[in-house]
Amino acid sequence: MRAELVFRQKHRLDDGSIVEMVIWRVPEPVAGSAHSFKYRLYFGKDGRRIVSYDNERGKGDHRHLAERESIYRFSTPEELIADFLEDVEKARQA
Fold first, then answer.
1. Which helix (H) or strand (E) holds 77?
2. Virtual CA dihedral for 86, 89, 93, 94, nearest 10 degrees?
3. pTM of the predicted model as reported, rounded to 2 decimal places
């Protein structure tokens, strides 16, 4: 099985910030993750990351909120997107 694109969406918001989400189904879990998805979700402005979620090889599932990195407990792609968008909304209101 080859990697299969599950979800891709990119938006430029009114203030110039970018929200981009990409999720792939992969044949084997990425090192550090226990599921069959590879993902990167990004929210930033002017080249500066504000919120991002990813499962980089070896690091596993984690998120970046401003300059802080923390473990993320992945359950489903739908929950991943919901959690990410909730953090984006919080960041936009801050």
1. helix 77-93
2. 60
3. 0.94
